[in-house]
């Protein structure tokens, strides 16, 4: 499972970071998913491995502009590029109205592809395709905000050759049939079911990607079985104390505590206040402060998202930073 | 008069160019004007000399997304920066509805400044402040589209010292009074009016900035008295012949012919199709083709806009490319 951050700044773009967007794909698959779409997401995409033609589904966490103002431009560009594949946007109330009205005002009366919206602000929301099963989880913010839990679809395990040999299934077409999920009948009349000769399926990879939220603990249940938590950490505790709780954002500490309680392996922090610089001068805040704070409360790995930063969550549960975005 | 291009691509952003936006200011004035606001304009601004706090008025040429989708983000950022000064957006129908609905969907219920819209799709439109008088001029495009004619407000001429001496006005406070526009009474009882002792005012600088348009000749009247025409040249003639007229855009030739007929001094071409590259490889289209085509039909200067490209129209009527944007 591969994540490429396209924007990692809270509220407004900075010279170092754009507003929020995240591309997610199952390893080398061409199809990919977009979580949030701040203004300028299509610009960031041009310098990434992903193309609009491979975009399968968009998930929006909440209606704030820095998470959705890039949608009309991205959709218009896909239209001008001649996209034909349908596009689904899963989002809470308000996003569809924004997008449809924007396109109408801009005289985009007809798209060359079907644009469908699905409401995620319902308890039973589940999105499923051949790569992922995605559920939504309500958070705490100034507007309804949601996390998305991406669970890799389990594929049947590979054939267990020892078991096949023990049962006397001859190598050849019968193995192929079993691999494709069909039972086979041996010469002696025994029927072998695929389930008898398969290894256990590989563990499904699960990542929980949060929207803006001041109570990361709300994700405790969603984080069960997840290896990776991606969550906003807009402030460190000291800044939070100065700014106050009115913006309803998280600190690195609070995210780390929730991750520790839920026993996930990896946390990627994102959505940083513009005051945190990559290379701070004396007296300035640096993003490393966020990492240090989180590491104090969490025993897993802590990574700091940056624009075009790309991470791979392997089948072995390891999280690796990739060079190529 | 200073123009900084913030986006010069037609329809969609490219790696070299963003979608349309242009910053205009009267020389070194802090206050500036924005003409069009494609997605990502606020990002381009961060690397320009201009700040959102100095932005006085926005003019939108037409409702297509590549000319207005940057408005909600720019307004939201101005709001988060605590802007207090009122902001006026002069635009044809559709733009206000787009902006107000976008802000409402994004839960921006209250701005810390007054946001006012003025309709430019009316014959009598005139915007006036202490720097510019701006009129709108209808063009020909797939949706109602307008050019804006920016005429510098004439300030009274400087005092004519020879004339003051000839009339026997003693140097000192009386000169100051005349300079500030008040009549003075001399010791011998004669009353001197400011108009008697002023040099003729410097010629007003006028720039006409077009929106998308397939009939540049429509600007003939608006171009009278103008030194500078900024106009889209999406295609060269050969490409236009292949693409056909359906997009209702101009070619470099057609803009040049209109400029020649109206006898303006300078043309800056912009809004180039993505196929025209700055450094084309063999077989690719290059932006220089647009300049060559225009120069063939126009005797004035032809410049090709590029992102962050900055030009100064001097009081002497000369157009100079500046290094600093």
Poorly predicted residue ranges of chain A: none
> How many DSSP helices of chain A?
9
Question: What portion of residues of chain A is helical?
Answer: 10-25%
The largest contact between protein chains, plus residue counts on each side, is: A-B, 40 and 40 residues
Q: Would you tell me the structural class of the helices and strands of chain A?
A: alpha/beta
Shape of chain A: globular
Radius of gyration of chain A: 22 Å
Strand order of the main beta sheet of chain A, please? 6-5-4-3-2-1-18-19
Enzyme class (chains A, B): hydrolase
Catalytic activity (chains A, B): Endonucleolytic cleavage of RNA, removing extra 3' nucleotides from tRNA precursor, generating 3' termini of tRNAs. A 3'-hydroxy group is left at the tRNA terminus and a 5'-phosphoryl group is left at the trailer molecule
Function (chains A, B): Zinc phosphodiesterase, which displays some tRNA 3'-processing endonuclease activity. Probably involved in tRNA maturation, by removing a 3'-trailer from precursor tRNA.
Keywords (chains A, B): Endonuclease, Hydrolase, Metal-binding, Nuclease, tRNA processing, Zinc
Topology diagram in text:
2 copies of one chain form a homodimer.
Chain A: E1 2-7, E2 21-25, E3 32-37, H1 41-46, E4 55-59, H2 65-68, H3 71-80, E5 87-91, H4 95-105, E6 115-119, E7 126-128, E8 132-138, E9 146-152, H5 161-166, H6 173-179, E10 184-185, E11 191-192, E12 206-209, E13 228-232, H7 237-243, H8 252-262, E14 266-270, E15 276-277, E16 285-286, H9 288-297, E17 301-304, E18 310-313, E19 319-322
Binding site for Zn(2+) 1 (chains A, B): 62, 64, 141, 212
Function (chains A, B): Zinc phosphodiesterase, which displays some tRNA 3'-processing endonuclease activity. Probably involved in tRNA maturation, by removing a 3'-trailer from precursor tRNA.
EC number (chains A, B): 3.1.26.11
